[in-house]
């Protein structure tokens, strides 16, 4: 069927575009302002050069890696994405199920449509991480941290690149609100996708499972969620109250990486929010080696932004990441076919990763190094 015919993440993207209302697809696919950063993330991967080593036996390669003392199946982690039930009625639970089956960590967003306790009950055996937006409502912050802890989440990701909301022009032009509101335009858009609408009518309305129900434009939600006052003091507070692993997501400067590690973070996620916040930043792949150099080998360094293939994951690992993270890659699969679509996305990424590793002349993820991959000059 359709999913089996998808050979690449780009194929899933096209399939997702055909099955989802335009405003929803654009919300996933789009980015801020001129979308320069989003394009740069992808271009940086296309510019990498693989230099294979010959005559190495590569039978039965070991794709696994160890992150925070736990083995993961291959160096991939699911990035947090908000409002996931809008993309497909199966939402976060479907994605987390696939991650757990595949032996990969899943990150739940603060603005997810499932909360930490619900996710743990539905997917008891997964390695779940929780992404935190700190708001200026202290009580809410305490509550979110407590729930993640009570639900046995291993790792907390503090997102720091959302002082204010980025401006995603497609969402503004499409009149996207969350939850979706009915206007002539949105009704016409949704009416073209009866399967999507059917599920919207038969499942509970989309609200923020972790917060309270809050109908408004995505910019209104952001205004409530994001705190322009976020500071190092907040990170110090979080380090005191959160006993598990702590990652700071949204780092693009080596000096920032060093500073958050000094304050007790267990690592960083090199991220520009997939180009959805500040436009014109560097690509994440470009700053990755400097960030790794700045913190040394001890702390975890992950990267997201523009990862669309197993080859991209391999390039990220070679240039200094413990693992790559993906947002849109799995959301395209989710839009195209719910849980099975996400499964297909993971299959594609894993088989591409394995093939590239073997063709590079390596039989284990731990042997990947900067010797085999470089960034093209200029
Ligand atoms: C995101 N991202 C995100 N990040 C975060 O910290 N909290 C969130 O709630 C969300 N929500 C969200 C929704 C959607 C639809 C997308 C596409 C992204 C950013 C995400 O975690 C990650 O940084 C990027 O998606 C990585 O880029 P790629 O893989 O999408 O290119």
UniProtKB/TrEMBL annotation:
Pfam families, per database record: FMN_dh
InterPro entries, A to Z: Aldolase_TIM, Alpha-hydoxy_acid_DH_FMN, FMN-dep_DH, FMN_HAD, FMN_hydac_DH_AS
Listed PROSITE patterns: FMN_HYDROXY_ACID_DH_1, FMN_HYDROXY_ACID_DH_2
Gene3D superfamilies for this protein: Aldolase class I
Keywords: Flavoprotein, FMN, Oxidoreductase
Binding site for glyoxylate: 27, 133, 168, 273, 276
Active site residues according to the UniProt entry: 273
Stretches assigned to the FMN hydroxy acid dehydrogenase domain: 1-378
Record GO terms (molecular function): FMN binding; oxidoreductase activity, acting on CH-OH group of donors
Domain of life: Bacteria
Cofactor names: FMN
Residues annotated to bind FMN: 80-82, 109, 131, 159, 249, 271, 304-308, 327-328
Similarity remark: Belongs to the FMN-dependent alpha-hydroxy acid dehydrogenase family.
UniProt cross-references to PANTHER family, sorted A to Z: 2-HYDROXYACID OXIDASE 1, S -2-HYDROXY-ACID OXIDASE-RELATED
Protein's name according to its UniProt entry: L-lactate dehydrogenase (Cytochrome)
Species of provenance: Amycolatopsis sacchari
């Amino acid at each position: 069927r359709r999913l089996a015919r998808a050979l690449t993440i780009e194929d899933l993207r096209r399939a997702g575009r055909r099955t989802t209302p335009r405003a929803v697809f654009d919300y996933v696919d789009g980015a801020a302002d001129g979308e320069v950063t989003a394009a740069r993330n992808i271009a940086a991967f296309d510019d990498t050069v693989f230099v294979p080593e010959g005559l190495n036996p590569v039978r039965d390669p070991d794709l696994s890696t160890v992150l925070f003392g736990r083995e993961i199946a291959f160096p991939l982690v699911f990035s947090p994405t908000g409002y996931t039930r809008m993309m497909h009625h199966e939402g976060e639970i479907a994605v987390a199920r696939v991650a757990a089956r595949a032996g990969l960590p899943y990150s739940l967003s603060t603005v997810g449509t499932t909360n930490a306790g619900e996710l743990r009950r539905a997917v008891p055996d997964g390695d779940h991480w929780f992404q935190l937006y700190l708001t200026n409502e202290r009580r809410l912050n305490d509550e979110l941290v407590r729930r993640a802890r009570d639900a046995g989440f291993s790792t907390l990701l503090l997102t720091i690149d959302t002082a204010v909301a980025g401006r995603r022009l497609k969402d503004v032009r499409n009149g996207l609100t969350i939850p979706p509101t009915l206007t002539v335009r949105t009704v016409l858009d949704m009416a073209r996708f009866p399967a999507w609408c059917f599920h919207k009518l038969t499942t509970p309305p989309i609200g923020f499972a972790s917060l309270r129900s809050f109908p408004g434009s995505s910019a209104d939600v952001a205004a409530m969620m994001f705190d322009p006052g976020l500071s190092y003091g907040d990170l110090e507070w979080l380090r005191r109250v959160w006993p598990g692993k702590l990652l700071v997501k949204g780092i693009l400067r080596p000096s920032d990486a060093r500073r958050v590690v000094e304050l007790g973070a267990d690592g960083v996620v090199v991220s520009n929010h997939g180009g959805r916040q500040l436009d014109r930043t560097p690509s994440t792949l470009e700053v990755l080696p400097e960030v790794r150099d700045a913190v040394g080998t001890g702390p975890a360094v992950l990267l997201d932004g523009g990862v669309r293939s197993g080859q991209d994951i391999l390039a990220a690992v070679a240039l200094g990441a413990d693992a790559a993270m993906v947002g849109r890659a799995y959301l395209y699969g989710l839009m195209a076919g719910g849980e099975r679509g996400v499964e297909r996305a993971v299959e594609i990424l894993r088989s591409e990763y394995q093939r590239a590793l073997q063709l590079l002349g390596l039989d284990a993820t731990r042997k990947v190094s900067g010797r085999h991959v470089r960034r093209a000059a200029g």
